[in-house]
Amino acid sequence: MRRWYGVSVHPGREDRAEWHLRLQGFHPFLPRQNRTVRHARRLILKRAPFFPGYMFIPLDLSRDRWRSINGTIGVRSLIMQGEHPAPCPIGLVESFIQQTDEAGLLDFGPRLEAGGLVQIVSGPFAELVGTLERLDAAGRARVLLEIMNGEVAVTIAVKDIMAA
């Protein structure tokens, strides 16, 4: 039975590891996102791994030569549980694949856009509605809340908000 497994790769070598795994006949999935990078006083939009240092690979442990993955250029090792690779939770990678657009980038949809209304779902500000000011690559959101006759900016985890 084919399942998804995590692969740890050397930092900044995700593309090289993916290429070498494909040469061996594997079909890795490397979730990517657009990231803004400052270079020489300019801001550049760059494709970057969503999980730096990790990718996913579908394997049937009884049929595939999975041990060869550990010797692949750019790969550190499969994520192991004892002597065998540890499978990812069922549905996790599949949901990432469903949320990938035509360009191969993870797209969590228009539900979280700067300037849009969001509702905080947990924490001390739970149930409050505010305006999303920005999202960052670290998974944090800056939200403007109307509190005490003024706007207060709070920074919270993206997992703690949803579109209003």
Give an account of the 3D structure.
The structure is a single chain. The protein folds into two domains: 96 residues, Alpha-Beta Plaits (2-Layer Sandwich); 47 residues, SH3 type barrels, CATH 2.30.30. The chain has two helices and twelve strands; from the N terminus they run E-H-E-E-E-E-E-E-H-E-E-E-E-E. Strand 10 and strand 11 form a beta hairpin. The strands form four sheets. Strands 11-10-9-8-12 form a five-stranded antiparallel β-sheet, with no helix packed on it. It is elongated and about 65 Å long. The longest helix has 10 residues. It is mostly beta strands and 164 residues long.
Give the number of helices: 2
Instruction: Tell me, briefly, the overall form.
Output: elongated
The CATH class assignment of the largest domain is Alpha Beta
CATH topology of the largest domain: Alpha-Beta Plaits
Could you give the topology of this structure?
Elements: E1 3-9, H1 14-23, E2 32-39, E3 42-49, E4 54-59, E5 75-78, E6 80-81, E7 84-85, H2 92-98, E8 117-120, E9 129-135, E10 140-147, E11 150-157, E12 161-163
Antiparallel strand pairs: 1-4, 1-5, 2-3, 6-7, 8-9, 8-12, 9-10, 10-11
